[in-house]
Automatic annotation (TrEMBL):
Residues 21-495 form the Major facilitator superfamily (MFS) profile domain. Keywords: Antibiotic resistance, Cell membrane, Membrane, Transmembrane, Transmembrane helix, Transport. The chain crosses the membrane at residues 21-43, 58-75, 87-106, 112-134, 146-165, 171-195, 207-224, 236-253, 274-295, 310-332, 339-359, 365-390, 411-428, 472-491. The keyword Transport applies. This is Transmembrane efflux protein. CDD domains: MFS_MMR_MDR_like.
Amino acid sequence: MTNSTSTTTPSGRAGRREWTALGVLMLPLLLVSMDVSVLYFAIPSISADLEPTGTQQLWIFDIYAFVLAGLLMTMGSLGDRIGHRRLLLIGAAAFGTASLAAAYANSAEMLIAARAVLGIGGATLMPSTMALLRTMFTDPGQRAKAIGLWSGVMTAGIALGSVMSGVLVEYFWWGSVFLVNLPAMALLLVLGPALLPESRTATPGRFDWLSVPLSMAAVLPVVYGLKEIPSEGWNVRYVVSITVGLLFAALFVHRQRTAASPMIDPALFRGRGFAPSVALNLVSAFGIMGSAYFTTQYLQSVLDKSALEAALWALLPSVPIGAAAPVATALVQKGVNRASVVTAGFAIAAAGFALLAFAGTDSMWLVLASSGVLAVGSVIVMSQIMDLAMGTAPVERAGAASSLMETGSEFGGALGMAVLGSIGTALYRHDMPASAPGVARETLGGALAVADRVPGLATVAREAFTNGMQGAAIAGAVLLAGAAVLAAVTLRRVELHTPQEASEPEKVPA
């Protein structure tokens, strides 16, 4: 059973207040997703000011994503128990405070600590926004539209983060990339208590604290290994890291099956549509991040764009994203089978990869078009399977369900960069001449760094990188085409139940 304060109309449809509350929720969601990429252009200024070591610089960049990924399941489950609005407001306060500390950090250690707290705050905000959205929008059609907006904002935030970083660093100072978080968090803290309903499980049971370290030990080593493999290769250290994480994942699963009050209720996966949704969401993130790994390097290192120019050009494929989720939702509401829509989304995304396979060393518009097509297909998929997952999961497990989907996205993105990045790197090294300097045979960046000493090296390296990108794109297209078939098979008979069918909400004072 779920305790909640509901403001929906007597017909069960959300009114103006719920849509206003959704707008308030979208602000922190946008900023949390932006913080994944907001340091892209700020790192050089931070390095000059704080003088971090090489290891510290890596932690400044990566600690946010690591902590976020490691705590998503914990925070989703905690929200189910203590209330998603309550957890959201606690997270907003933590996120705002950490943003202020990061903006005025006077040492690398202080900035790393602040970024870690930002990750904790982000882990509370992401599942809480989705769980509250589920509570506010009980009408399936309205919920689908709201989740479509949620998916679009998440995708747009990642693209906007790097651009905003470049603009702010250009005209202000590096700390300003963190200060932009403060107004949105302040607005959420002021309006949230008045607009947002509380939603929590009425009889949650004891929180399983042992599952917290187990979940982190399962997630963090795997994410770390997958993030390092694209740049460092399949080093034994990273393979061991992934293996250790998988062993802890097995222990975590065993704990969930045997604990009296597990963090993640295994019954979630008995819902016919939930497990396929998690898997398909992972594959969708695989495609998005795998593609981004190549297109960002292509714009900067092959076409020789500046970092800010590359970020601005990379925004162009985001333009059609805004229409993708609403169109997909409208089709489902008009009676088109959801499995068909998701299958079409994967097919469109696969076509984006197929376009990328035809790119040459001067194919900017083709690369941007492929990114746009892939993004449209991916957002169609993400919006529909997120709605499916949240619609098939019991209301009282909305936070846990959301956190599992988001953790899957983190894994999928890291896996996409690792697998497709490794394919591209292997093909790049195969095409580079044996006479090229060692550093040039490793990466395109290494080749460009010494290109002034070796005539013709830059041209050869750019061609080799493009060939590697083509090979990775073919692999990506095949995988997403396979996902289209998987979606058609696993989702064809899945039906949604409404939240009321899972649990009748009980109104309590806000």
